[in-house]
Design goal:
Elements (H helix, E strand, L loop, with lengths): L2 H5 L8 H13 L10 H38 L12 H5 L5 H15 L3 E3 L2 E3 L20 H12 L10 H19 L10 H11 L6 E4 L6 H12 L8 E6 L2 H13 L5 E5 L9 E2 L2 E2 L4 E4 L10 H5 L17 H10 L7 E7 L9 H9 L3 E7 L11 E7 L9 E7 L4 E3 L2 E3 L2 H13 L7 E5 H6 L23 H27 L1
Parallel strand pairs: 3-4, 3-8, 4-5, 8-9, 10-12
Antiparallel strand pairs: 1-2, 6-7, 9-11, 10-11, 12-15, 13-14
Helix pairs in contact: 2-3, 2-7, 3-6, 3-10, 8-9, 8-14
């Protein structure tokens, strides 16, 4: 057998549907063994491990075809991701005892062999800690050898090389898996998943451009960052020069974000695990680093945060004032505004409706309106978040507003721009197009959008409640729900009533 044939990787493409089915099938092997909330701790690292091993083999085979074994060995040292001897997927697959321990050893070896690179005051790429927590793999009561071996054999059925599964398809399959985990795990999913159709809307409004910097200070699994790159790909624009930044407080979730970016073909990124409010990761001297595009879905109304430190914030993020202890929303909001480039900076933030009208934040809101940073506020329909009835809003801000937009805010009441099928709610392309058109034209459309002056908002005590400026008529489309969906709708509306009641009490006692 010639060297070329010996190392040739057979090109057997995997369809996206087949990939999705395979990945979810592997995850369901864990049912009964661990809780659904823990699936991601095991499936994502295995998927990443198999992918980088197969891509390494594919690239190595190409080098052998070019110049033989010795040449391939030298070139392999320059690959973006290197697999050290003894740490390949096949090395672990051959083990029959203490499989979890052998897997952890391979993870650690790969992480150590692929350090990040210091570029422009930040660490780019690198695999340090990317496989997440490792204790679970060596806990035989939780993950016995036969379960791990079964998972490894499941993944071994497919070649996950670039030829078999291009980066865009791998990324879509990965995003599908994140969504499935979110659906299966219930409310705990909010920490790492935002409805992707909502994120698509945000990317369409922000319109990231080649060579720009994109930042998400609470990046979760990195879906918002990936969607910005998808926007460029869909427009046929070069995306490789985009610089991607993210920070995430949860260690496992930040690892998932890094895997997500790698599997989507992104190499120039910096994802840092840490508390954005307490220790912002991206700074330049005594100031926060500035970005072209910022988008985020911060944790809503958290109560456990260091308000005292923020009151004396050394990064100057309290320029609107210090938020109340029980609601840190405007702390994240101000961090985002302070992170926007003075010329090109714009942002899209998903926030609860309460930030628009709560009495306790009126002074902050007044200063925000006076700063003339808000371009648009979009009210979304219910049920767009996994297992949550809440209606959120998107706030669009821009540091350097167009002349015709200065001193004005566009309100869009898109509460009816949503479709619900198979117990899932999402935005269709027509909804996104309608919202984007209203945003870009600033047209007044009955029961949908209205552009008003900042002065009018200030006359209303800086109340930004969308329904104060534009109301939406009830949707005319009648849909027939199943019994299960009807019960779920009732439960959702019941929770929504209590949420609104809490907001009312907050206004009364604010």
């Amino acid at each position: 057998m010639t060297e070329a044939k010996k190392y040739k990787i057979k090109d057997e493409p995997i369809s996206l549907d087949e990939m999705k089915q395979f990945l979810w099938g592997a995850a369901t092997r864990l049912r009964g063994q661990i809780d659904a909330t823990g699936y991601k701790e095991y499936i994502f690292p295995l998927l990443f491990f198999k992918r980088i091993s197969d891509v390494y083999d594919e690239q190595y085979a190409g080098f052998v075809c070019e110049g033989g074994e010795e040449y391939a060995g030298m070139q392999a040292q320059e690959l973006v991701i290197r697999i050290p001897d003894g740490a390949h997927w096949n090395d672990v697959r051959s083990v029959t005892e203490n499989v979890g321990q052998r897997l952890v050893e391979a993870f650690i070896a790969i992480e150590q062999a692929n350090p990040g690179v210091e570029v422009d005051g930040r660490v780019v790429g690198g695999l340090e800690g990317i496989f997440g927590p490792k204790d679970g793999w060596t806990n035989k009561a939780k993950m016995p050898d036969h379960i791990i071996t079964s998972l490894i054999e499941d993944f071994s059925r497919y070649n996950l090389s670039l030829a078999s599964c291009p980066a865009d398809e791998m990324g879509q399959a990965y995003e599908y898996l994140i969504g499935k985990f979110a659906d299966d795990a219930g409310n705990t999913a909010q920490e790492f998943y935002t409805n992707r159709t909502v994120v698509t809307l945000m990317a369409e409004i922000l319109q990231p451009q080649p060579e720009e910097s994109i930042y998400d200070p609470t990046c979760g699994s990195g879906g918002m960052l990936v969607k910005c790159l998808d926007y460029l790909r869909a427009k046929g624009l070069p995306w490789q020069g985009v610089k991607v930044f993210g920070q995430e407080i949860n260690a496992l979730t930040s690892s998932i974000a890094r895997m997500n970016l790698y599997l989507n073909g992104v190499e120039d990124f910096s994802i840092v695990c840490g508390d954005t409010l307490e220790r912002p990761a991206f700074v330049e001297g005594s100031q926060l680093r500035k970005f072209d595009v910022v988008l985020a879905n911060p944790p809503y109304s958290i109560k456990q945060w260091d308000r005292e430190a923020f009151m004396h914030d050394k990064w100057g993020r309290n320029f609107l004032g210090t938020p109340p202890q029980g609601r840190a929303d405007y702390a994240f909001f101000q961090h985002i505004l302070a992170s926007m480039d003075d010329k090109t900076g714009r942002c899209a933030i998903l926030l609860p409706h309460g930030v628009l009208f709560r009495k306790e934040e009126e002074i902050l809101r007044k200063k925000l309106v006076e700063s003339d940073l808000i371009e648009c506020i979009i009210g979304l329909g219910a049920n767009l978040f996994y297992n949550s009835p809440m209606e959120a809003c998107i706030i669009i801000c821009r540091k350097n507003k167009a002349q015709e937009a200065k001193g004005r805010i566009t309100f869009i009441n898109a509460v009816n721009e949503v479709v619900r099928k198979n117990a899932e709610s999402y935005l269709e392309e027509k909804h996104i197009a309608k919202i984007c058109k209203a945003y870009s034209t600033q047209d007044n459309i009955d029961n949908f959008s209205r552009t008003v002056s900042n002065e009018l908002v200030l006359e209303n005590s800086a109340n930004l409640n969308i329904s104060l400026y534009v109301s939406a008529v009830a949707a005319t489309e009648i849909s027939v729900l199943s019994v299960d969906d009807s019960i779920k709708q009732w439960q959702i509306r019941n929770k929504q009533m209590y949420n609104e009641f809490d907001n009312l009490l907050s206004l009364i006692h604010g």
